[in-house]
């Protein structure tokens, strides 16, 4: 187990005592190859306080860019150890694990770095931006605050590289996905419509409010007099209207004359909800030219106003204006809450080439956080991503697939930092003199205006990692034969024959051994990948879990091979300490194994106790199923740390799942029970082959007895399965 997994529900009220000071550096020139110190380049730090101007500046940079590099920092990767990426994961299982990760963890930093080729300078101009992101609830809609998981190893990793958690939580930019935006518009519009329908009380008939107390009678009479005085002053001396105050029970209730929609009005302040209802009753009974209105101000606060109208037509006009105001206010509030998604909308609308490094999970996060719920299948996801980002490059795939780059890297690690150091020494180590002209020059432009927003970038900061990704891509293109110096202005990478072969090809995971084409949704083997395990045949795999904790891989292989032969198992892979995948050499051995397991568990005779599989079945909690069972468990949104607990949480109550020859499956419960509808009672006695009296003994059981009994049990069970399938 690599660590503990903790879930945090962050809400808007979460605060920290203080913010860690951030060291900033002002640059004296408009462009700089690197930051003034040796730790990195000038990366623009963007939080909620400077998001609006930074977004407008980014719009210009993206429109001018030839490509845009991106990188994300998340609060975790896997919600449980068994949800990690394995070679034994089929394509659909692999996607389910990526989907689970994107849905459960949060994005806390988003790096965006536009790159533009400047022919006059003979270099790329980069503009790295580091956005702090936090899923803050900004709209007053029903529902709980956002929740996400934090994996302690990931949080520790971020802290080790000086991640500013205070800036993230206090000043992180909130966002709405496109699906959340549509839902919020509908919800708020409906809520405002209800408020609007209730705001013009004197235009419709309403149920009378009984005046049961003397205080209510006195209050309504006093309000009637106040409104009469206000109307009289309004008519006689419209230019001399001044605030009128009403004091009652030491609470200050104020009538303040204002103008609302070019009409004289009284702003009500300091009244209770019950008193406001009494005021509406007074207006409805005694003042046909006064209208009670509830409107929303620029701070999203409801204002209570009494407006003077001079005709029925004016009332109708007022009603329409208030309704239009509420609609505009709703759209403005939701548009403001969209937040960081404006950056994603910018990238999709401009259709620039997007460059990432090993970025399949990053793209899943982007889709989940800023578009909507992730599709159910890998193919649907790939096509949906391609629709929004029609041109994408994964530099990890580019590095692994090019023999030229492989030679230059001398079989070094293909991690981003390693590739950056080896391929881009001119940028990664500016203090060292690099004489070769084969290296691409990259300048980082930091505007003098607002330069206090620029920090010295560092590795594992999203903005700086995006910068490194872009540099690696530019240098890789140069090694592939692209001649940037032949271009005086913008470069269209998608039309370059040397780059086309790598377009829209991503690794689903680092050990998948496949590449998925986003334009088609088709996943193909990766010829450059070297597998640790033999060729995997998923139909030959059985899933076993719940076995004793002292069972190790060698123990499991030994007890199974004693029954089915030394060459019966191709490979064994432990998902965690409680579950394993066993790949048999033949598909029929999968069913043979689970049927034998069932027979041994339903017979309590000495034969079962002495059987080689008895060690695996010890404790009575061992369960087995085919590969589809593994997929079904992975598809659940629940994530328990141990696989055995996950299977229980998913609701698996059977012990053995068998597939018969016709492709149908049977599920067998434990011991003296069987699953309703399965039609197969538990085998209590094994009959069939006649035992040899010479071999019978009250004190010992021979090997031949064991073999005869198992043969008879297997034959009987198969016969029962066939009979059951024939019953209409």
UniProtKB/TrEMBL annotation:
For activity, the cofactor(s) needed are: a divalent metal cation
Question: Could you name the domain of life of the organism this protein comes from?
Answer: Eukaryota
Q: Which Pfam families match?
A: CAF1
Membrane-spanning regions, if any? none
One term of GO molecular function? RNA binding
Q: Which family does it belong to?
A: Belongs to the CAF1 family.
Q: Under what name is this protein listed?
A: Poly(A)-specific ribonuclease PARN
- The source organism is Cocos nucifera
Lineage of this protein's species? Eukaryota, Viridiplantae, Streptophyta, Embryophyta, Tracheophyta
